[in-house]
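Input record (one chain):
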Amino acid sequence: MLIATIVIFLAILIISHELGHFFAAKKFGVRVDEFGFGLPPRVASRKVGETRFSLNLLPLGGFVKIHGQERKEGEIDEPHRAFVNQKISRRAIILVSGVAANLAIGWMALSLVFSMGAPSKLFVAEVLPGSVAEEVGFKPNEIIQGWSSPEEFTNFIQAHREETVTINGKTVIVPEEGIIGVRISTFSIPKQDPFQSLIRGFEATISIAIGVVKAAAGIIVDAIGGKGDNLEQLSGPVGIFNIIKDAEGLPFLIYLLGVISINLAVFNLLPIPALDGGHLLFLGIEKIIRRPIPQRVEVLANAAGFTLLILLILLVTFRDIMKL
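The corresponding structure, as predicted from the sequence alone:
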């Protein structure tokens, strides 16, 4: 069940993003040569019309191969349908459509949760630095199992001072003062009517997106300053696996899908070569200097950006594994 849930999550997130690019390109008459789920090497494929749909070995993303996007000489056989020959405004819309699709998925998922409602759950609102809770591995937003209210949890801790207890599978030695260093809060969503759900879902989408932008800015500032504090906020495939594993109930899974989709949208807008934001940056430079960036420079920048992303994925995955 868990593996099936993860596969469904990845399929929705990846396919929706690439479908955004796909339909925008089709809208402007730009040819799409391949729609791929996963990264090469290719496992299976089938051509439907002018587009080849492929299943690839590495389930770390997806792609659409748009005719003329890479500007390789000799490979553009329909110049009027090539990406590179479109107006900058059209190319920008095609690039940003994947992000827009992920934001739309996030909005719809959160709106659905508001329309369904969600029962009350306890979660970790804060972990105090240097506390017992931090030492044993409690994390912000972690769902607390086995108690129905913050008061019940606090009373349990107070009743077991200087004893060893198990919370969420973690062995905790409660200090004499009966404080382990976590602030517990409750999470619940009252059921809303459909129209109000859309409004609440939109507000939540904007709020989460702004939060992701602030977190990304903090990570960049820390990286420049040689710190890694905010990098701890990132989760890779292993971290997402653990989050999904701990989620309980359909509303929480749908909520998680929405949050991850919004995170993916904002991440893709970062001005890093190989991401949509990087390509948009190149278009902005092209608009200013009134000529395309030299292909060799663009290829090298994209290669460097892709290498950076792979290294970041490996680093975050390693940290996620160390937290298991």
